[in-house]
Design a protein that fits this description.
Layout: H1 2-15, H2 21-28, H3 32-44, E1 49-52, E2 58-61, H4 74-91, H5 94-104, H6 112-119, H7 133-148, E3 150-157, E4 163-176, E5 179-186, E6 191-196, E7 200-209, E8 233-241, H8 245-252, E9 258-261, E10 264-272, H9 275-283, E11 288-292, H10 294-310
Antiparallel strand pairs: 1-2, 3-4, 3-7, 4-5, 5-6, 8-10, 8-11, 9-10
Keywords: Transcription, Transcription regulation
InterPro entries: CBASS_pafABC_assoc_protein, DeoR_HTH, HTH_11, PafC-like, WCX_dom, WH-like_DNA-bd_sf, WH_DNA-bd_sf, WYL_dom
Pfam families: HTH_11 (PF08279), WCX (PF25583), WYL (PF13280)
Length: about 325
Amino acid sequence: MKIERLLSIVILLLKRNRIQAKELADLYEVSIRTIYRDIEAISLAGIPVVTYQGAGGGIGLMEGYRLDRSILTDHDIKDIVMGLQSLSSSLGGPNVSRLLHKFESIIPESEKEQFSVRTTQFIVDHSGWGNQAVQEAKLIKVKEAMSQACTLAFTYRNAEGTRTERNVEPHTLVLKGQQWFVYAYCPDREQFRLFKLSRMSEPVVTETSFTRRDLSYEVLPWNEGRMTPSRDVQPFTLQFNRNSKHLAEDWFGVEALTEQEEGIYTVSVPFPEDAWLYGFILSLGPDVIVKEPAHLRDKIYQMALRIASNYEAGQEF
């Protein structure tokens, strides 16, 4: 990601007098042209970067320049490191970890113990519990396609199981609700679409380049209430007993529970009614039932009967 690279270059220039553009390009695995664009961005931010010509030349900071530590307070640095730790858990890869170590290296030795305590008081870990190798491999492909501005080809299966071959222009990676999505322009549909990473398979970075399109952050589809039209959202009520109360608290929060009688609780929430909702309700187990609406209660009942029939003696698909 560009912001990681810019911060890393600044820290590197603070530690070294001069460095060759080619060395920076090799270090961050980008072109020399990209490095010069980064240097221009750093200069526009007010940090005096100087390019020295001839033998022994390279890129460095103006003689005598030091980054004013008052720009970043101790709390600022703590928050940045915590943010990088969170980013490292979700995106992975060596670049974020390398930047994290470099940023931590500017902390004076006498303050490192206290700084370590402050940055481990609050940890955000977006990674899943199981093996994340497949997801990480997909993320690497998507990031590669975005950084090179090349289209991404993959096989996609939607929520109904329909399989299609896609070749899209990836613009943004979105982590929402512990799920990764790729926001990309689809030439076949002639519009931006949101693709769930877990439904993508065999992603390939093509040699076809594209020009990044302007995005309006006021109409991005992952904003609250925009993933699904409001007309598709239906209120429903679930009933939990004392054995399943913890599930209600985990999913909906303690405040959402209403105690109807001793050991019986209800939760009323709006959700779009689709295959995901049916699977979610069934996953809550036998200590949870649908109270309302009646048609959803009947739907879950019929699905439960079908599941039970699959386990009857001798039953095969």
